[in-house]
Amino acid sequence: MKKRILIIGACGQIGTELTIYLRNKFGKHKVIASDIREGEKELMKSGPFEILDAMDYNAVEEIVIRHEITDVYLMAAMLSATAEKFPMKGWLLNMTSLFHVLNLARDKKIDKIFWPSSIAVFGPTTPKIDTPQRTVMEPSTVYGISKQTGERWCEYYYNRYGVDVRSIRYPGLISYKTLPGGGTTDYAVDIYHKALKHKKYICFLNAETTLPMMFMDDAIRATVSIMEADKENIKIRSSYNLSGMSFDPEEITESIQKHIPEFKISYEPDFRQAIADSWPQSIDDSEARKDWSWETKIALDEMTEIMLSNLKDKY
Ligand code: SER
């Protein structure tokens, strides 16, 4: 088996942990990490790294050919809050990088693609509880529009050219290794850091904002298992709903207070409140469970324990 993997956007929140996981699984020289800038020490010393601008087709192609890449994980993207500040930049980065990778697969230069979608594909008119796989999708953010459009193109490239592209609609992801950047769900990571450091946190969403979330270990397991599943089992070529847990800022606060009783939260909602209000509160992921045996493992209190015990030496 001559699988060789390229991760584009390897220094981001997902990319860092995905790279290390795949290197442990397949061997460090089989997994090339790339990003527009260098990342965390642990990632940089774990195997080969290339500086790569995901917008530059020739540069992506050159690395794919030189390293004889078979599988690409395209993790570079501008997230929801930043893309509201730079709409055209967000749209161009998110779409151009996807087309580069889809076209490499269409032209048979790579075999398989992982491309992340998001709960942001849903919008204010979508049913909010147990949001089904197939439902009304009228996203109101630039990020959501780019992810929904991306899903349509993935399905099109599969139907028209047979491109083996696989995708998951990630909920908000929580991890301790690398910080997220520019997302609406980022508060659920920041809150753990501030709880340890200052024993208080000012939240940019209000107390009752319930959102779908997931601990990073579950997200990485989902990502690798959809990529390793038999081709015939991947029945959805746009993107699969994926569910971990749902909570609001008050509930994550209560979970932290079980360990840090003096911890206090206050609320100063900003423009991200409207983004969060447009997204679902919980997700029905029965298609992923059925097609590639997905099962979530980590719930809120267990995640809180893992987060606090891994971050405590930092502060
Ligand atoms: N976590 C992302 C964001 O908040 C959603 O995919 O933008």
Automatic annotation (TrEMBL):
Alphabetical list of InterPro entries matching this protein: Epimerase_deHydtase (IPR001509), NAD(P)-bd_dom_sf (IPR036291), NAD(P)_epim/dehydratase (IPR051225)
Full protein name:
Nucleoside-diphosphate-sugar epimerase
Where would I find the NAD-dependent epimerase/dehydratase domain in this sequence?
Answer: 5-232
Organism source for this protein? Answer: Aequorivita sublithincola (strain DSM 14238 / LMG 21431 / ACAM 643 / 9-3)
Q: What lineage is on file?
A: Bacteria, Pseudomonadati, Bacteroidota, Flavobacteriia, Flavobacteriales
Gene3D superfamilies the record matches: NAD(P)-binding Rossmann-like Domain (3.40.50.720)
Listed PANTHER family: L-THREONINE 3-DEHYDROGENASE, L-THREONINE 3-DEHYDROGENASE, MITOCHONDRIAL
Query: What family, per the record?
Result: Belongs to the NAD(P)-dependent epimerase/dehydratase family.
Q: Which residues form the signal peptide?
A: none
Q: Which GO terms describe its molecular function?
A: L-threonine 3-dehydrogenase activity
The cross-references to SUPFAM superfamilies, in alphabetical order and at most eight, read: NAD(P)-binding Rossmann-fold domains (SSF51735)
What is a biological process (GO) this protein takes part in? L-threonine catabolic process
